[in-house]
Design a protein that fits this description.
This protein has one domain: Electron Transport, Fmn-binding Protein, Chain A (Pnp Oxidase, Chain A, Roll). 27% of the residues lie in helices and 35% in strands. It contains four helices and seven strands; from the N terminus they run αββββββαααβ. A seven-stranded antiparallel β-sheet has the order 2-1-5-6-7-4-3.
Length: 140
């Protein structure tokens, strides 16, 4: 995607503030190629835990299925961690719930309705977990 190179530049520049509140760079090695990849991703942070979502049809997250070391560029700081792609629908649903509890405004992008108390609808979460994966990253 053409805009990834622009986001990579912005997130590494002094101008990162306009996008780094919810977008970071994740760097990982390809499982087979061992080539290094750096891509921008939206994230939610809960202490040392970072949650990232992706559509199942995308391929980058497959490099993290069994867990792999990653480097994160978060607000111009580099953090090392372990990333793991979560694919089990029940586990995805649980992590997606955490994601949306931390960033309820993101619910519309997942087509998840919120109740009057701001809690995500369980059926919408279950549906979204069928088309998404969650990458959990524990930063050190």
């Amino acid at each position: 995607m053409w805009y990834n190179s622009i986001l990579r530049w912005m997130l590494s520049s002094p101008f990162h503030g306009s996008v780094s509140k919810n977008t970071m760079l994740i760097t990982f090695k390809g499982r087979k190629s061992e080539k290094q990849y750096t891509i921008p991703v939206n994230y939610v942070r809960d202490g040392n835990l970072f949650l990232v979502t992706s559509y199942r049809r995308r391929k980058w997250w497959r490099n993290l299925v069994d867990g792999a070391p990653v480097t994160l560029r978060v607000q111009r700081q580099d953090l090392n961690g372990m990333g793991e792609a979560i694919t089990d629908e029940a586990d995805v649903a649980n992590n997606l719930l955490i994601y949306l509890q931390n960033a309820p405004k993101q619910a519309k992008y997942f087509k998840v309705n919120l109740d009057l108390d701001g809690k995500p609808n369980a059926l919408d979460i279950a549906r979204a977990s069928q088309e998404r994966v969650v990458v959990r990253i524990e930063a050190k």
